Amino acid sequence: MKQFAALLRKDNQPVRYLVVDDSVFARKNLIKMIEMFGGELAGEAGDGLTAIAEYNRIKPDIVLMDITMPQMEGIEAVERIVRQHAEARIVMVSSVGYQENILAALQKGAKHFVQKPVKPEVLYEILRYVLSDDPNATGAPVALAGESRS
Amino acid sequence: MSRQPEDRNNELRALFFESAAELLQSLNEAGLELEARPSDEEVIRRVRRIVHTLKGDSAACGLHKLSELAHELEDVLTPQVTGIHGKEVPEVVLAAADSFDAMLAAYQKNAKLPSMSALHAMIRRLLQAPGAAAGSVPDVAQAPGQFAWTEYEQLMISEAVHRGDPVYNIALRIDPNSLMRAAAFQLIRNVLHGSGTVIALRPEDNVAAATIVVVEAALASPQSEEKLLHRCRIPSIVSEVHIEKITASQMPEHELLGDLLEAQAAKVVADGAQGIESDRAAKRTNAGSAAVAVAESTLRVDAARIDAVMNLVGELIIGKSMLNRTLTEFDKQHARDPVRAKLADAMAFQARILDELHKCVLKIRMVPVEQLFRRFPRIVRDVAKTCGKDVALEISGQNTDLDKGILDALAEPLMHLVRNAVDHGVGSAEERLSAGKPARGTVYLNAYHQGTQVVIEVRDDGRGIDLALVRARAVQKGIVKAEEAQRLSDQDALNLIFESGFSTATEVTEVSGRGIGMDVVRTVMERLKGTIHVGSQKGRGTTFQLRVPLTLASIQTLLFRVGGRLFAVPLSSVVEITRITDHEIHKVDQREVLRLREQILTLVRLNHLSRLRSIDSQPAKKKNFVIVIGAAEKRFGLVVDSLVGEEELVIKALPGEIVSSDLVSGASILGDGTVVLILNVPAILSRLSRATPLGAIA
């Protein structure tokens, strides 16, 4: 298996992840990758509501969020989490067919997206990018003019 | 990812083969375009896109050999390679299209894959040639960064620069492999807005997302160039970043009015240089978004489902005429009943809607003939190349609609006619020049509506058909006797080419002329209830005219009675109707004939022709109607007792065990429940020609 240099926080602690997906298989798959990157699984959720509760409880460094889930969809979960925690780093995980939803999630404040099936090397680069995020960066994500904001 | 059940997989496979066929068609078209304009980067990109899609789709379907080949081909399709080998790349693309086609066919039949070594060699040669690096090379010539800001934006930029804010021109190329360009664009916007103040942005929001290639921005940001570069290198989204800091020296001294004037002047200059280019770009974008819109509103539907709806509409039409008859009866019995008028109104309303519904359903089956015509540029090119000729193809009327089933059935005959036109019709360059024509021959393909029929024409501007040769060949092949051949009119002689076993090509070529052909074309036309007509002028060219009904599901017919029975013939095959008296009928070779305007017409009586035993032979009448029927260049007269009228009939196929006679092609039910038999005109004709020498049926 390919080796990855560990992705660490600025304080050299392992990055803490919250993995949200209604498919147990998909979660296991992502968790395996996280471990390959030297990360720590802080929590899991199978739907949007649980994801919000878990976020509030564990304050993870990164959320990997599926788009389509029961109870509450990924987009709404993103919106609610970002409203409370502007610093949240959420990466959407979705298949190509859900471009509209990804677009919406990005407008709500998701930081990035990765296409299913997730390739470890792609996810690694994306996580590295998202983690390098400068907290001092200004400005909030904007919605495309004319797009619905529902 | 969850496992998929077997039938889902099969469905996917079927979908793949269908879409792959379309991709190959586009690839052929793009390949031809590339041949015409080898340095057009837009065309190269299009070819590359098609190949890329094919690669992805075939990989997803597990057709790895195909996917690998597509991948190799992709490497050739870079401006570097095409720039050096402009002439050879189209050849490789077309050869690859053929190889893909062969591979797909093999996959579909689960057969052994054909060898691709020739194509591999072609591709390798191109890649190894000096100057072309293997693998995909970043597109240097097309480096992003036009930064064509509007005057207002320029003003904003210069204002910010003069204020001392660092302003950067940033261009980001979206990863060519990105499948979610709209999402990618949004993410780029997020990142830009998160890094500073976006003064200007291209494309603007309303651009069709799928066509975004490069995003350009003017960004005022306190961050360092290095840091911005890092932020803009968004993994899996951006493949290339170009950043330049705008310095005060690049900006003229800030003065509002002066700036505006200068910008105006710059615009005038720029318009001259760039106007055309940006115009073209804009058009492309528009065309692109239109195409996207069309694709999204198109559904793929199983043809059987449409046929089922069609069938039901047919039943409804029968139901309508049942109701109409009942209403007529009701009228007679309750002439003063006020309900009568209401019923009539409701009926009229329903009839109108039904009519509309019928038309709509018919339209679903209609497709533009372009679907068929678009194959021909490639075919003409290949055939012309094989024969060493220079032939242009001119297509018109491609928007003419025709039933999909008929269109598919026409593919084969039309292919044959077009090949023939190139191979035999258009003469060699020397021959053409000595006849005072341009060296380049032209084949015309045209389609148009005429009444309830569609006419498709294949015309060439060649030497025309040599009638003497046709006569001689027909005699040699034993189709007609020598003296008969001389008696035939020119048109009849021309029609000999439709006889089986006929071919005028003096040499058998790879392309056409293996002795089969024209008779097959005629057979198909008869099956489609259509006709074929050939016209030729020596030295001027040959025209083949194919006529087919708009649809096979329902036909306009002429109803008539023979011996108390109701029959119908397709109206499209009725040439004329005439009244005759008995003494006008002559007997020749135990066959009744009629002299109609100097033409001899064989007469047919249904009660004689078939063993329709129950038809009582009525006492000979003084006057009879004769329906003159023509199909595929032959004519005969049908003697009938009375004419009933025209009626649109919905054809019901008859199972073989019910009708033993091939003289009837189908049946239909009238509103009063009467069953009508629809005559099979070609079958009657062929029975006639078996019984008589050909000359007599003219």
Defining key terms:
heterodimer; A: 150 residues; alpha/beta; Rossmann fold; 5-stranded parallel beta sheet; disordered C terminus; B: 698 residues; alpha+beta; Four Helix Bundle (Hemerythrin (Met), subunit A); 6-stranded mixed beta sheet; 5-stranded mixed beta sheet
Give an account of the 3D structure.
- The complex is a heterodimer of chains A (150) and B (698).
- Chain A is an alpha/beta fold and 150 residues long.
- Chain A contains five helices and five strands.
- The termini of chain A are far apart.
- Chain B folds into five domains: 123 residues, HPT domain (Four Helix Bundle (Hemerythrin (Met), subunit A), Up-down Bundle); 146 residues, Histidine kinase CheA-like, P2 response regulator-binding domain (Alpha-Beta Plaits), CATH 3.30.70.1110; 62 residues; 144 residues, Heat Shock Protein 90 (2-Layer Sandwich), CATH 3.30.565; 144 residues, OB fold (Dihydrolipoamide Acetyltransferase, E2P), CATH 2.40.50.
- Chain B has 22 helices and 22 strands.
- The N and C termini of chain B lie far apart (70 Å).
Summarize the structure.
With about 150 residues, chain A is α/β, with parallel strands linked by helices.
Question: Which strand-content bin applies to the residues of chain A?
Answer: 15-25%
The CATH class of the domain at 16-118 in chain A, by name, is: Alpha Beta
Tell me about the biggest sheet of chain A? 5 strands, parallel
- Spell out the CATH superfamily of the domain at 16-118 in chain A: Response regulator
Distance between the termini of chain A: 43 Å
Report the end-to-end length of chain B measured between terminal Cα atoms. 70 Å
